[in-house]
Amino acid sequence: MTNIRSYWWIAGAVLAGAVILVAFQFSTTNLEYSRYNPDWNGTSAFFGLIEAHHGVELRSAAQLAGREGSMLLIIAPRGDLTPDERLRYREFLSSGNSVLLADDSGRGNGILSALGSSLRVTPGNVSSADREYRDPSSVDAFPAGDDPLVNGLHTVCLNRPAIVSGGSPMLGTSILTWVDQNGNGRLDGGEALSRYSMMASEKIGNGTIYVVSDPSIFINGMLDPAVCEGNRELINRILTGAPNGVMIDQEHGMTGSEDGAIQLVNLMKGTTLIRATALLLTALGVIAVYRAIKKRGGT
After folding, report:
1. Is the dihedral of CA 57, 221, 263, 276 positive or negative?
2. How far, in Å, CA of 71 to CA of 243, rounded?
3. Predicted TM-score (pTM) of this structure
């Protein structure tokens, strides 16, 4: 009877450990831009690069205090700043840091306004004859200006980008570009060819704001396309350009998006009681195994 109880303890501990390991190691999501999404539209590969460069995930504006020479990334913004956050973000900029916002929806304009920037994102069906794929909305962008982030870059491939207005242009389209108002993939009457800004910068006090009109340059499927040498190089420059590294805003960017399963896993990671329970179960399992082995050795 004692042996049966010991084996039940062992089985229970092993099962609990297996459940915990599965939850921690294999929980994923299909939410667009989420760091927990390993599919083509997620940013799991990009976060692997962030970790390799010792980047910091921003969960609270208080983490910005005391930073100098850092860059804050806001990818696919999903909400505005609170009054307290506005003060902290402005202090972050005035301390000589930079903010890079990647947006194609226009939802980031509230953040830009709160930071005192004149840069704006205007959504539109930007299309171009200069593209790497059949879809005219897969627009090629080229360096414009001499900012170190883009100077000398090869072609950067974009996917359904918006238009950036204001500031100093950094990436732009060719003249063979138009806004496809009716979505038919062709240049029609009333749709004029023009050059459009895809990335621009603006000095705010001692800091700099960068705006990219396409957050999808950070997703797995666009991170390193073979035909677009500039994509990976641009990402590398973003991650290494700031002397004191990068931070990525997980509160205001869609990279921090979580569904129910991921929220549970993160709760497990951050909750002392659950971690303590897991450790207790593991310890009980070890004790049960030790007792079973000792009992067998004594018989």
Report:
1. negative
2. 9
3. 0.80
